[in-house]
Amino acid sequence: MKTVIVGGGLTGMQLARRLINERNDVVIIENNEETARHLANRLNCAVLSEDGNNLATLEKAGIQSADALVCVTSSDEVNMITCSLADAVYPKVLKIARVRNYAYYVNTTQASLSHSAFQNANHRPLYGIDFMVHPDVEAASSIIKAVEHGASTEVITFENTTYEMCRITVESGSAMEGKLVKDVRSLTDKPFSVCYVENSERAVLADGFTPLNAGDRIGILTERAHISTMLDLCGSKAQSLKKIALVGAGQIGTLVATSLVKSKKKRKAFFIIDSDDKKAKIASDKFGKEANIFNADISDEAFIQEEGLNNFDLSICATTNYELNMVSSAYLKSLGVERTIAVVAGSAYENIAKNIGVDIPVPIRDAVADSIIGHLKGKAVTGIHTVSGGNFETIECKIENSSKVCGKNLIQIARKGEFLVLIVKKAGEDSYKIPVGKTILEQGDRVLLITSAKYNQKTINFFGGKQ
């Protein structure tokens, strides 16, 4: 697959690296000469130091033979115009744009869904953009899911299924400690699978003989109604979040606050804090009846003590300053805040964030890259999520007749250390189920699997039907 990426910032570089590692042909267009030179030195792909919103430049990059155009510059308008320009001449090229302005995202989505002209499958989408990716929506969704489970675990949800994947630490003295994976099924009658095990030394896909030790973080797939049971088995408890402090009244904060307010759960306190007086004023107008709004600096110790933030159950740091989010979360944790969530730049910062006291880091660039990669994989793949700091990826896909796994059971296709099939929805059935070794995969079945990142493309080819 050939992909032209316009915008060589951190997201563009991360996306390019993942595509290159999967042996795709990548060309990056970046108009900043220094950034372009840096990219050329670090990535094994062509880099053009020119403006991407120029048809001649796009053609120089090979847009005419490309499968996809991905625009991730710092300007929403440039991303949208570039897609529109390319679509006018090369409509068959898949076009994806990162759009930060929520108004663009919402208005375009609503127009596409509601206007009769765009319900025609043969009609090109608005602005020629096949998929808009909004980083704030992706990050806010991750935060909201974590809060729903008491901020005791990171949660990944999967569309059209009741199953979720949570990341839980095995506590000393818990029922899980000292067990082999094959022995933990006897601990409960609730359906679940241990997907991976990670610690400071390694991260591995779980098999029956993988040991579970205190301090290990494990990925567990179960139905959302049973996550509290999994927490109990690991020695954790879902926190009662009666007092929440939300730092950052920007777009992510607004989306999270809207969800918290709509949940109608009774809380002793809900604070929204932002050092920008304009954002604080907007938040006050929108949430003033349900929350206490403060135009204050979260690093101000006097403010923290005066308002008693050290006694809060949860702090959510969701500003656009990712380093501030990490430091503020660590500081609040040291003062006594029970649980902390922080939006961080990417997976490279996850372990750093955890080591300094952040309970749940939300890597925003990974969420964007996952969404884009999922759209690039074709119709067989319906979703991709990065987990365990980038060590693994979950893949949702549909079994085609040309797939190498079609007609075979899980024992026959097993590849230790490469992938695990987690749940299967048989063709014609309404729900997903955890399979057994004798489960046969057939055309039309939908599967959710987890794969080691280094085997990502190999696994997709194996299940998707490519040779």
Helix content: 25-40%
- Fraction of residues in β-strands: 15-25%
The averaged pLDDT comes out at 88
Instruction: Outline the biggest β-sheet.
Output: 6 strands, parallel
According to DSSP, the number of beta strands is: 21
Distance, first to last CA: 14 Å
Low-confidence stretches: 111-119
Alpha carbon gyration radius: 23 Å
* Sequence of strands across the biggest β-sheet: 3-2-1-4-5-6
**Count of individual helical segments:** 15
Oligomeric category? single chain
What global shape is seen? globular
Class inferred from helices and paired strands? alpha/beta
Question: Would you mind describing this structure in some detail?
Answer:
With 467 residues, the chain is an alpha/beta fold. Helix content is 33%, strand content 24%. The chain contains 15 helices and 21 strands. The protein has a six-stranded parallel β-sheet with strand order 3-2-1-4-5-6, sandwiched between helices. Strands 14-13-12-15-16-17 form a six-stranded parallel β-sheet, sandwiched between helices. Strands 7-8-11-9-10 form a five-stranded antiparallel β-sheet. The longest helix has 14 residues. About 2% of the residues have low confidence.
